[in-house]
């Protein structure tokens, strides 16, 4: 078992995140990158915009990552042994593009209650200050949900450009990771990330999120897989794991899942981000 140590747990409780956690070797991370780029090459529209969600449903390789025992051991230390995979997202920032993520708290718009869940950000490439790694406002998870402006600003990778304004940058810490390492962050920590100013892509594969089976979706419907333990609550629709890349059956269920996710991200909003 590679559970979090008591120091790591303390770090998570005090700061709202813990990192780095070793998950994959650099070569294994590179294999994941190749899988992502293989999908982008063969199915060019599949991983654009909303297509960056629920990617584990169409690729056995990405699916396998979500069930990685090192990730699950660490997650279990935080949310307990009954764990569901409730969504994945690729946060890709290509060089020379305007992608950034405004400061926000995930719990504000994702509809998962209570907050017995944690987000795992796995670095597929290195993530550093030059290529726009996440910046965390340590300790901000201890406060309530803050006001978020819906800014819809160009390049913002968040759906509605949800933004906590006036975050003191000097109080935020860059979350630097090597390819294959992961961070875990709390539902209410304020975090964001800047532009990629390097010459290569920055890719994060994010399990968004691992949830305890006691967590409900209060804004709509999400599709889950059992990662560990039992689901006696049965709040969510369970889906089966993919056995081959892009099977038509998996594509269909992913489309449903993504349509439902859009309804969660845009409740009552007619304006949508340009994809
Ligand atoms: O990848 C990024 O830069 C931001 C990701 C993020 O906001 C998240 O995983 O909650």
TrEMBL record:
Lineage: superkingdom: Bacteria
Pfam families in the cross-refs: PhyH
Annotated SUPFAM superfamilies: Clavaminate synthase-like
Protein name: Chlorinating enzyme
Natural source organism: Pelagibacter ubique
Source species taxonomy: Bacteria, Pseudomonadati, Pseudomonadota, Alphaproteobacteria, Candidatus Pelagibacterales
């Amino acid at each position: 078992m590679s559970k979090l140590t008591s120091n790591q747990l303390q770090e998570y409780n005090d700061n709202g995140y813990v990192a780095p956690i070793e998950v994959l070797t650099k070569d294994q991370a590179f294999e994941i990158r190749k899988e992502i780029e293989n999908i982008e090459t063969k199915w060019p529209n599949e991983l654009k915009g909303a297509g960056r969600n629920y990617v584990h449903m169409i690729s056995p390789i990405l699916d396998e990552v979500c069930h990685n025992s090192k990730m699950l051991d660490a997650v279990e230390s935080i949310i307990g042994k009954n764990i569901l995979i409730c969504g994945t997202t690729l946060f890709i920032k290509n060089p020379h593009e305007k992608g950034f993520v405004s400061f926000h708290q995930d719990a504000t718009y994702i509809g998962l209650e209570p907050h017995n869940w944690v987000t795992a950000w796995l670095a597929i490439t290195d993530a550093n200050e030059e290529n726009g790694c996440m910046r965390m406002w340590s300790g901000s998870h201890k406060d309530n949900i803050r006001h978020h402006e819906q800014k819809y600003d160009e390049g913002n990778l968040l759906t509605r450009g949800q933004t906590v304004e006036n975050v003191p940058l000097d109080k935020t810490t860059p979350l630097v990771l090597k390819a294959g390492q992961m961070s875990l962050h709390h539902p209410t920590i304020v975090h964001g990330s800047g532009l990629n100013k390097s010459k290569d892509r920055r890719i994060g594969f994010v399990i968004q999120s691992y949830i305890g089976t006691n967590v409900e979706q209060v804004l709509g419907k999400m599709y889950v897989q059992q990662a560990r333990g039992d689901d006696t609550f049965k709040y969510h629709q369970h889906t089966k794991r993919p056995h081959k890349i892009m099977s038509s059956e998996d594509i269909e269920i992913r489309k449903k899942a993504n349509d439902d996710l859009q309804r969660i991200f845009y409740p009552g909003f007619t304006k949508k981000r340009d994809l």
